[in-house]
TrEMBL record:
InterPro entries: B30.2/SPRY_sf (IPR043136), SPRYD7 (IPR035766). It comes from the Eukaryota. It comes from Fistulifera solaris. Coiled coil: none annotated. This is SPRY domain-containing protein. CDD domains: SPRY.
Length: 199
């Protein structure tokens, strides 16, 4: 009595491992630019690459205490451009129709974003902390940009980039830790993950 059958244990372990692998694959697939929440003028390629102009949002809210992701810049050599990085609240196509009539940062949905002058090959790191004091920090090629930090925000926010009208500018969101080119500002900042509901 009370003995455990090891053959049952191995079978369940294999199933659990398979479920975890499938969950990781689903997690990466879900981390993509949302065509529904992004401006119609944004061109989305390969799920995480954007060009064109306007506001582009990733379809996953930042729900963990500390998250980090990168934006990799591709631009014509010798060219530089100011691009806004950070987070934004959820948007829909009605927002973009009404935005055409206004011109403020709040109207564009960029109040939780900061403009950074970038060129080809630059890496912009975005670190979001929600536990102590909600804050968005920015890094350019691994160097912190302390004066650009966004403090005190509320509610659900989504990774976002605002591209101005441009020629030849492409930005790629990077969420996989193995593809990060720079370090996050602190070890507590892990890659963005998709929150799963508890059943």
């Amino acid at each position: 009595m009370g003995a455990c059958c090891s053959c049952c244990e191995d079978a369940s372990a294999a199933v659990s491992e398979t479920e975890m692998k499938e969950q990781k694959a689903t997690n990466i697939k879900s981390l993509s630019i949302s065509r529904v929440m992004s401006a119609p003028s944004v061109d989305v390629q390969d799920d995480c690459k954007m060009s064109g102009y306007g506001l582009g949002l990733v379809g996953v809210a930042v729900e963990q205490d500390a998250a980090y992701w990168e934006a990799h810049i591709q631009h014509d050599p010798g060219m530089s451009q100011e691009v806004s990085f950070g987070v934004a609240t959820k948007k829909d196509q009605q927002f973009y129709r009404s935005m055409e009539e206004q011109d403020s940062a709040d109207a564009k949905g960029t109040s939780l974003m900061r403009s950074i002058k970038v060129k080809d090959g630059d890496v912009v790191g975005i670190a979001v902390q929600q536990s102590d004091l909600p804050m968005v920090q920015f890094l350019l090629n691994g160097e912190p940009l302390h004066d650009l930090a966004v403090n005190r925000f509320r509610g659900a926010v989504y990774p976002a980039i605002y591209l101005p009208e441009n020629d030849g500018l492409t930005v790629r969101f990077v969420f996989r830790e193995s593809e990060f080119e720079k370090l996050s500002p602190h070890a507590r900042f892990g890659p963005l993950i998709v929150a799963r509901g508890i059943i």
